[in-house]
From TrEMBL, chain A:
<keyword id="KW-0472">Membrane</keyword>
<keyword id="KW-0406">Ion transport</keyword>
<feature type="transmembrane region" description="Helical">
    <location>
        <begin position="6"/>
        <end position="25"/>
    </location>
</feature>
<keyword id="KW-1133">Transmembrane helix</keyword>
<keyword id="KW-0813">Transport</keyword>
<feature type="transmembrane region" description="Helical">
    <location>
        <begin position="59"/>
        <end position="81"/>
    </location>
</feature>
<dbReference type="InterPro" id="IPR007208">
    <property type="entry name" value="MrpF/PhaF-like"/>
</dbReference>
<keyword id="KW-1003">Cell membrane</keyword>
<feature type="transmembrane region" description="Helical">
    <location>
        <begin position="34"/>
        <end position="53"/>
    </location>
</feature>
UniProtKB/TrEMBL annotation, chain B:
<feature type="region of interest" description="Disordered">
    <location>
        <begin position="127"/>
        <end position="147"/>
    </location>
</feature>
<dbReference type="GO" id="GO:0015385">
    <property type="term" value="F:sodium:proton antiporter activity"/>
</dbReference>
<feature type="transmembrane region" description="Helical">
    <location>
        <begin position="6"/>
        <end position="29"/>
    </location>
</feature>
<dbReference type="InterPro" id="IPR005133">
    <property type="entry name" value="PhaG_MnhG_YufB"/>
</dbReference>
<feature type="transmembrane region" description="Helical">
    <location>
        <begin position="66"/>
        <end position="87"/>
    </location>
</feature>
<keyword id="KW-1133">Transmembrane helix</keyword>
<keyword id="KW-0472">Membrane</keyword>
<feature type="compositionally biased region" description="Basic and acidic residues">
    <location>
        <begin position="127"/>
        <end position="140"/>
    </location>
</feature>
<protein>
    <submittedName>
        <fullName>Na+/H+ antiporter subunit G</fullName>
    </submittedName>
</protein>
Amino acid sequence: MEIVILISFALLSLSMLLIFIRLLMGPTLPDRVVALELLATVIVAITGTYAIFTDRSSFIDVAIVVALTAFLAAIGFARFLERGGPRDD
Amino acid sequence: MTETIVNWVIAIFMLSSGIFTLLAAVGILRLPDLMTRMHASTKAGALGVALMMIAAMLHFNDLVVMAKALAVIMFILITAPIAAHAIGRAGYFVGVPIWVNTVKDELFNRYDSDTHRLRSGLETEEELKKMKTSNKDKPRIRVTTKK
């Protein structure tokens, strides 16, 4: 079981790294916003893995909060893109 | 015995969650434009989180945790398409370039980026003329990008 948890941590960390590369590269601002949203999704998955790893169920609450803030951030960025001021990609 | 089987099921769920999330990450890194990247990230990412929450549900074997994990899954499944729609819409309006080999862009001739109006393609000549002359419909979004 330990090995499985470690492998999932490794897979999730690798995907975080790849998403971070896209976040740095992303030619336009919407690309970066999509990368940020997926990063938050991966963080929710990592929180679930950590809850299993430490055997504490309170971390599920953290997952709920992270998912909520990620959604609000994505909507806010979309509104900013449609109506916002000058931006520098 | 049952313990072992449950552990195997949890292991399968966790590993498939990791693999699907990695797939989403590879997709967001390798695919050519914004729409295809969103296509990879929203679906595979949501499935990865859902599988991980199911694994936590099975691991804790508790009704309260089960309700919370189900809440996370429902929340992700509801909000992921909404956020993707909002970002994709904003991206189209600010003029994010789409892939060269895109087969179909149905808004290409219908959407007027100056007035932010969408034509149905079934208007008569008079309606088109009226639409061009009437200047009171100001665009409600910022349509020009400052470079």
